[in-house]
Amino acid sequence: AGAHVAPVLTDGALEMVGAPTFSALASEPARTSLFHDPDTPIPHTVLGQTADLVLICPATARVISDLRT
pTM for the complete prediction? Predict the structure, then answer.
């Protein structure tokens, strides 16, 4: 309770569950891109600067490897 959730969906996620579903369950509309937000000067960095936690689900072996380096 009280968590601020800002979903960012990949193309694969959009094929399984639509953005409106995530938007309805989250604190703000689901993003489908980190780079095309006209309201934010550097949109791909905003979420990382304000996040207490980043959850990647599912985390593939490639993603885990990329985060390691």
Answer: 0.69
